[in-house]
Amino acid sequence: MKNIVLGVCVIFLGTLIRVPSVQGMVEGLYCGLENCYDVLGVTRDTEKIVISRAYRQLAKQNHPDRFQSEEDKATATAKFKVIATAYEILKDDEARVDYDYMLDHPEEHYRHYYHYYRRRMSPKVDVRLVIAVTISVISVFQYYTARFRWNSGVRYLATQPKYRKMALEYAEVEGMLDELRKTKKRNKEFIKTEEDRIIKVVLEENMDIRGGYAKPRVTDVLWVQLVVLPYTIALYFAWYFRWVWRFSIKREEFGQEEKLYLIRKNLGLSETQFESVTETEKDEWLKDELWKTDKFKAWKEEKIEERKRQMAESGRYKSERRYMKKYGTGRMYFDDS
Questions:
Q1: pTM of structure
Q2: Which domains are assigned to the chain?
């Protein structure tokens, strides 16, 4: 136990002791105890093009392949590494700034370690490239997900007798079935396959499917939305000020479009959800004047009460209440009705 406490104290005291430095150079950082500028024979005011020229000349002179003996090769290899390290530091603007700061402030030892290893350990990929790739992946995923939902909606409609009949009637009028009737392959399987294909084409071209299964548009993907974002924001502010001017200042009456917008906001529905609502239901909401806050609240309370009555009159709900009253909570309940 005493040895453990002693070890902890030694480690703590070691963190308070500064690692020796020579004229601002720290062993293990950058060029070690050598000055990177002196290694390349340049000064802190030297331009990058001159630094590159000095590096090429020194690298050529000290390349290990120029030496024959193993001892000379080892010496040249060590020197070549220092030259390459100095060049890597001085050619990078940010690394050079950190190095100059270390030379000017040798006492800030831990800061130098932090900046040095943060730069070495951080990924070299440009953050802008990462963001661009991420947005692209999201945009592609968005489009193909919407495309899949759209195709699912079309396939579902193609199985419904009502829409199959409408599609075939449209194909008959447009002459899309003429080639099928002229073909020599008259077996039922071939005719069924071709009819399904024609029905799908007709539905894709003519059906106005809204909501979550609407036909995908390139303008809905994230990339396009980000590009047109300034324009979208400008349109929103123009719409908002026009709304305030017309209905708050001039006190104009709401049109049907404005009424439906207020109804959608009161119901808490998104544009996609609201588009999937039938026109009959929208007409009922307009008839009930649900764009008015007081009438919407009354309508909502009425719907809640109606729902409670339906549940109270439900046979299954009554059975559950009887069970809970008799046995309480914590037991399994099976409904075999």
A1: 0.49
A2: 11-121 (1.10.287.110), 128-223 (no CATH)
